[in-house]
């Protein structure tokens, strides 16, 4: 397995800040088809707070756990709605499994990612095919665990591809969790906004690799 350092993770988080701005209108548009039209706005509010806190982040004294604790607290504290607490818990769980390290192995990344996905499922209680972010996060977790021995970059390329495919595959489903649930059959044919933001977050980890 390869190593990932704090500089890498700061780069990944900075990619998320840019991603949230660039996709703000797109993700809110998707959410206006099936929910209350704020998913992009929610992420943008959260990651603007992440950006603000990153200004005072001292790479010498901080570590990967404290970085993701800060990200998680921003999303948990600043973002209303379902996705704030879910993504907030995702990053808090991701960071807390890493025991204040400044460098981790890709194996440790995979373990932390697994714990983060489990936390989202624990909090949101969504199962596969409920048409939520869980439908792309679970296959990502499974793929990562099955490819621990492979080149990490190759694996992340495949994970992002798989998540994009899953996000399209769940379009014909009826939502069983979140606001889209209230639409019943009218959600059929639409994207789940959280699935579309989840693969973009994973892509931020991929693009931070050299
Ligand atoms: P809200 O629906 O409260 O306005 P957002 O629009 O920001 O919050 O986020 C909506 C997304 O949150 C959905 O597209 C879905 O992927 C995700 N979501 C909602 N409820 C759950 C849940 N119980 N478990 C997992 N994901 C969920
Ligand atoms: Mg919404
Ligand atoms: Mg909302």
Automatic annotation (TrEMBL):
It catalyses: dihydroxyacetone + phosphoenolpyruvate = dihydroxyacetone phosphate + pyruvate. GO terms for biological process: glycerol catabolic process. It comes from Granulicatella balaenopterae. PANTHER family: TRIOKINASE/FMN CYCLASE, TRIOKINASE_FMN CYCLASE. ADP-binding subunit of the dihydroxyacetone kinase, which is responsible for the phosphoenolpyruvate (PEP)-dependent phosphorylation of dihydroxyacetone. DhaL-ADP is converted to DhaL-ATP via a phosphoryl group transfer from DhaM and transmits it to dihydroxyacetone binds to DhaK. It comes from the Bacteria. Homodimer. The dihydroxyacetone kinase complex is composed of a homodimer of DhaM, a homodimer of DhaK and the subunit DhaL. Its EC number is 2.7.1.121. This is phosphoenolpyruvate--glycerone phosphotransferase. NCBIfam families: dha_L_ycgS. Keywords: Glycerol metabolism, Kinase, Transferase. Pathway: Polyol metabolism; glycerol degradation. One of its GO terms (molecular function) is phosphoenolpyruvate-glycerone phosphotransferase activity. It holds the Pfam family Dak2. Gene3D superfamilies: 1.25.40.340. GO terms for cellular component: cytosol. Residues 7-207 form the DhaL domain.
């Amino acid at each position: 397995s390869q190593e990932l350092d704090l500089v890498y993770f700061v780069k990944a988080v900075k990619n998320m800040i840019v991603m949230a701005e660039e996709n703000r209108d797109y993700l809110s548009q998707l959410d206006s088809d099936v929910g209350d039209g704020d998913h992009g706005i929610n992420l943008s509010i959260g990651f603007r707070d992440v950006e603000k806190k990153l200004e005072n982040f001292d790479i010498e004294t901080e570590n990967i756990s404290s970085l993701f604790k800060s990200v998680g607290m921003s999303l948990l504290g600043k973002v209303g709605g379902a996705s704030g607490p879910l993504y907030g818990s995702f990053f808090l769980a991701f960071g807390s499994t890493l025991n204040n390290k400044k460098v981790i192995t890709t194996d440790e990344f995979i373990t932390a990612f697994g714990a983060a996905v489990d936390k989202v499922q624990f909090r949101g209680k969504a199962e596969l095919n409920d048409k939520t972010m869980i439908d792309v996060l679970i296959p990502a977790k499974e793929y990562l665990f099955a490819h621990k021995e492979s080149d990490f970059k190759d694996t992340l390329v495949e994970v992002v591809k798989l998540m994009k495919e899953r996000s399209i595959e769940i379009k014909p489903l009826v939502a069983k969790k979140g606001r889209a649930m209230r639409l019943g059959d009218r959600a059929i044919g639409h994207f789940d906004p959280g699935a579309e933001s989840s693969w973009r977050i994973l892509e931020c980890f991929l693009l931070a690799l050299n």
